[in-house]
Design a protein that fits this description.
This protein has 13 helices and twelve strands. The protein is α/β, with parallel strands linked by helices and about 325 residues long. The strands form three sheets. Strands 6-11-10-9-8-7 form a six-stranded parallel beta sheet. Strand 9, helix 11 and strand 10 (about 270-275) form a beta-alpha-beta unit.
Length: about 325
Amino acid sequence: MTRSTVDALGAAELDPTHVAGIVRRALDEDLAGGMDVTSVATIPARHHGTADLVARAEGVVAGLPVVAAVFDLVDTITADAYIGSAEEWRDGPDSLAASPIRVSPQVSDGDLVRPGDVLLAVSGPIRALLTAERTALNMVSHLSGVATLTRRWVDAVSGTGAVIRDTRKTLPGLRALEKYAVRCGGGVNHRMSLSEAALVKDNHVAAAGGVAAAFAAVRKAFPGVAVEVECDSVDQVADAVQAGADLILLDNMALADLVRAVQLAKPHGVQLEASGGLTLEGARAVAQTGVDFLAVGALTHSAPALDVGMDLRPGTERDGR
């Protein structure tokens, strides 16, 4: 995927090299060193057409740059099975390079779509389009599902001042894409990696001998790193505030305890993040306690896929133009 492709789809924040690597691994998994035997057997190489990626359900779109990368990569395949024989091309081009796949987005990432809306149209050799179909749909369905669920949480706390934030509970290898999808849905990202910020959790506290001791150890070892401290009681919140924490994660606290934590921390300029046991139905009540963030692991680890299909338009172009 080229930089211009990403920029054109409104996702310049995605690293094209990283996206291309993910897409290549996905296609390698799907092709397993071989070819799409069904498409090669049933579709002449010279047959061209157009297909639409269509929403089957209402949701928020995310992942169109990744879909473009899938088709870009399939477009570079030069095996004879995809190009066809010289006889098949005797009245037209002699390679797929002469008839590249063309991707035409109809919406942008972050847009709300309804059943029947076309997300993207793609034209080119039908063999290649169908080879790319499942990988493209897997990507856009999953990422749009993350964006859609995120938007529901964002809408649930609208007007409270609280922000919906993700976690590191992501699928291995897909973190950058899933966190991008969270942003498409209106959420914000927590740390991308363990080195980006410190989060002192219960096991760190136990190993260090207390909240204050754990915080001091991290601050001494990495003075320039923001430090968040997990607390599961109001007493621990008081300790963390006194120690100088930048952000406190309130783990599985009742609403009354969240209110008390806000009263303790806010006068000192400490931000608070509610986490653990959160539900979409109860999100607004949690946000109204005055916390700054709701950390929701479900955005990435439990988002249902948005139903998206690919429909090949009737008719084909046989001259490769």
